[in-house]
Design goal:
heterodimer, A: mainly alpha, 2 strands, B: 163 residues, alpha+beta, 5-stranded antiparallel β-sheet, elongated
Chain lengths: 419, 163
C-alpha cells in the first residue's frame, strides 16, 4: 500500500518536472516561423536599389556635399534651422518631440531617415516619392526651414560656389536683384510668392535647378544612413546556424515570447514586415487626433499631393524615365482605405525614437501597445485593427522584444556629425 | 505508518497543484502551439491547406486557360514588380485580342491590392504584361483577372501564399 503511494507520487513528480522543463526551455520555431523570422532579419535586406530619379544618388562627392547642406543652418529664414535640427544623428535622426519644430511648429512628428532609401514613399502620408523630393519639402515650409529657393540659390552662390560647380556645373549668374530677388519662391508667404510669379520662366527654372540639385546632394548623403544589426538579428542568425547558446545570449525568454507574439497572435507583422519592419504602405490604425490639431486624413491627401508634386518621379526635374516610376504610375489614388492611413514607421531603433505615431500622440511604447490592444473607432476612415486580447504580461513581452530592435546606425562615424 | 501515508498524499496533492499552476502560468507560451485558435481569442482561420495555388488555371466558366509568371519567383514582398500572363482558349489556342483588368486582395483581411496594376502591353502569342503588381503583407492573396475576348467574358482567380 505504502509502496503504491510512493510509486504514484514519484510518477506525478516526474510528470510535473517534465511538464515544467518542456514549458521553460526555449520553445522551438516551426519551419514556417523560421521563414518569417528570416524575412525580418537584417541579413535579408537586399542591396540598396538604385534611385533612377537622382543621377547623383551614388556619387560620393555629392554625398559629402549633401552632408554639409544637411547640417548647415544658414539655409533657413532665421539662420538656425538645418535638416539636422529635427533629424539628429544622436537621436536616431529624430528629435524626441511630438511635433517637429523648425522656425515654427509642424503638425507631424519627425520621421527617422534611417533606411528611408528603401521606401518608395516619404513622409507619414507619402506625399513625396524620393528622398531628394522629400528633402526639399521642409526647406520651403513656413514652419520648418522657412526660406525660399532664390534665397537658397544666393546662399549657394555665396558659400558653395566652387563645390557646387565641381558637381553640377557652374552656377548661373544670380547677381541681378531685379531678376533674382533675395526671397522668392512658390511658398505661403504672399510677398515671396508674388516675387516668384514676377520672374520669367527661364529664371525660375534656373533657380529651381539649383534647388533640385541641393535635394539630390542631400539624398546622396541620406542614402548612406542604414540601420545596424540588433540583438534580434543576432538571434535570427544564431537560429539559422542552429546555435542554441548564441540564441540564448542574444534574446531573453521574455523577448523571445514577445517576438512570438509579434509574428503571431498580435499580428504586428501584418504591416511591420520585411527587414526594416515596415511595408512602407499606408494603414489606418485609428490613432486619435492630437490635441489642438485638425483632423488629419493622411494618405488620402498625401497621394493627391505626390501626384501633383512638381518634383515627383515623372516630373521634368526627375532623372527617371517613365518606366522607372512604376510606384507613381500604378499608385492607388482613391478609396476609403486611404482615409486616415499613415505609413508604418520602421521599428528598428523604435525604443530610441519616442514619442510615437504621426503627431506624437503616445509618449511611450506602453501607450502604443494599449492602443493596439483596444483599438478605438478611427477619427476618420476605417480602423483596420482588431482587438488583440493581450495580457499585461504579453504586452510587456512585446515591448521587451521591441527594445531588442535597437542596433543604432550603420554608417561611418564621420557621417553622423557636422562635417 | 499513518504519518508516512499522509506525507505521500500531501506530496501528491502539492505536485498536482504545481502541475495545474504551471499549466496555467505557461498557457500563453503553450497556447499558440497546442491550442485551437478559437481558444486563443479566435484568430481568423488560416487558408485551407488544399487551397489551389497553381499558376495555371481555367477561368470560372471554363472559357479560357490562364497562367501567370512573376518577374521574380516567388512574388516579392513590398516590391513593385511585373507579371506576364498567358491566355489561351480552353482547347489551347493563344488569345491575342483580349481586354484584361486586374483586381485582388486578401480574403482574410477584407482589403484589396495596395496598388492599381494594369495590363500595359499585349506581348503577342497570348502573352500580356501586367505592371504595378505589389503585395505588402504576408499570407493568402487572391489575384483576379477579368478577361473579355472573342465577344465573351470570364474571370479567373489565382491564389498565392506569401511567406
Amino acid at each position: 500500500m505504502k509502496r503504491a503511494y510512493l510509486i504514484v507520487g514519484g510518477i506525478l513528480l516526474t510528470a510535473a518536472a517534465i511538464a515544467l522543463w518542456s514549458a521553460i526551455r526555449s520553445p522551438s520555431w516551426s519551419e514556417a516561423e523560421i521563414v518569417t523570422l528570416r524575412g525580418l532579419w537584417i541579413g535579408s535586406l537586399p542591396a540598396l536599389p538604385p534611385d533612377p530619379s537622382n543621377v547623383y544618388a551614388d556619387d560620393p562627392a555629392a554625398a559629402a556635399f549633401g552632408q554639409k547642406l544637411f547640417f548647415d543652418t544658414r539655409f533657413s529664414s532665421n539662420g538656425e534651422v538645418a535638416c539636422a535640427t529635427c533629424h539628429q544623428p544622436e537621436l536616431m535622426f529624430t528629435d524626441g518631440l511630438p511635433l517637429a519644430e523648425g522656425v515654427g511648429t509642424t503638425t507631424r512628428k519627425t520621421m527617422t531617415i534611417i533606411g528611408t532609401a528603401y521606401s518608395p514613399w516619404q513622409f507619414w502620408d507619402g506625399r513625396k516619392d524620393s528622398q531628394w523630393a522629400q528633402a526639399l519639402g521642409p526647406m520651403e515650409s513656413p514652419v520648418e526651414h522657412g526660406g525660399t529657393r532664390t534665397q537658397y540659390a544666393h546662399l549657394m552662390d555665396e558659400f558653395y560656389r566652387d563645390e557646387y560647380a565641381s558637381l553640377f556645373g557652374p552656377l548661373p549668374d544670380f547677381s541681378d536683384p531685379e531678376r533674382f530677388p533675395a526671397s522668392a519662391g512658390p511658398v505661403d508667404d504672399p510677398a515671396a510668392r508674388a516675387a516668384w510669379d514676377a520672374m520669367t520662366q527661364t529664371d525660375r527654372d534656373a533657380v529651381t535647378q539649383v534647388y533640385v540639385n541641393m535635394g539630390k546632394a542631400i539624398a546622396a548623403y541620406e542614402r548612406l544612413i542604414m540601420p545596424a544589426p540588433s540583438r534580434f538579428d543576432q538571434y535570427v542568425e544564431a537560429l539559422l546556424n542552429e546555435d542554441k547558446s548564441a540564441m540564448q545570449a542574444a534574446l531573453t525568454d521574455d523577448e523571445v515570447a514577445g517576438l512570438r507574439l509579434f509574428i503571431g497572435r498580435a499580428d504586428c507583422i501584418k504591416c511591420h514586415n520585411g527587414p526594416l519592419f515596415t511595408n512602407n504602405d499606408f494603414h489606418n490604425t485609428g490613432v486619435p487626433t492630437a490635441q489642438g490639431l485638425e483632423l488629419d486624413d493622411g494618405r488620402a491627401s498625401g497621394v493627391l499631393k505626390v501626384l501633383a508634386d512638381e518634383f515627383n518621379c515623372l516630373s521634368q526635374w526627375s532623372d527617371a524615365g517613365e518606366n522607372d516610376c512604376a510606384e507613381l504610375r500604378f499608385v492607388t489614388s482613391e478609396g476609403e482605405q486611404l482615409e486616415g492611413a499613415f505609413k508604418p514607421p520602421t521599428l528598428r531603433n523604435i525604443a530610441e525614437t519616442a514619442p510615437y505615431m504621426h503627431a506624437g500622440q503616445f509618449a511611450t511604447l506602453e501607450d502604443v501597445l494599449a492602443h493596439y490592444n483596444h483599438p478605438p473607432v478611427s477619427p476618420v476612415g476605417h480602423n483596420e485593427l482588431e482587438p488583440l486580447g493581450l495580457t499585461q504580461t504579453e504586452m510587456a513581452q512585446i515591448i521587451a522584444f521591441l527594445r531588442a530592435l535597437s542596433g543604432g546606425v550603420d554608417a561611418p562615424q564621420a557621417l553622423l556629425q557636422a562635417p | 505508518m499513518k504519518k508516512q501515508t499522509l506525507t505521500v498524499i500531501a506530496t501528491t496533492v502539492i505536485t498536482t497543484i504545481v502541475l495545474i499552476a504551471a499549466f496555467i502560468y505557461f498557457m500563453p507560451i503553450l497556447g499558440p502551439r497546442y491550442l485551437h485558435p478559437m481558444m486563443m481569442g479566435g484568430s481568423a482561420p488560416v487558408a485551407s491547406s488544399d487551397l489551389d495555388t497553381s499558376a495555371s488555371v481555367l477561368t470560372d466558366q471554363g472559357l479560357f486557360r490562364v497562367s501567370y509568371s512573376s518577374e521574380s519567383t516567388p512574388p516579392p514582398l513590398n516590391q513593385i514588380h511585373t507579371w506576364t500572363i498567358h491566355l489561351e482558349t480552353a482547347d489551347g489556342q493563344p488569345v491575342d485580342d483580349a481586354e484584361i483588368t486586374v483586381d485582388g486582395g486578401m480574403p482574410q483581411h477584407g482589403h484589396g491590392l495596395p496598388t492599381n496594376p494594369q495590363v500595359t502591353q499585349n506581348l503577342g502569342g497570348g502573352d500580356y504584361l501586367v505592371e504595378g503588381m505589389k503585395f505588402q503583407m504576408l499570407g493568402w492573396w487572391e489575384v483576379k483577372f477579368n478577361i473579355s475576348a472573342n465577344g465573351q467574358s470570364d474571370t479567373v482567380t489565382f491564389n498565392l501564399i506569401l511567406e
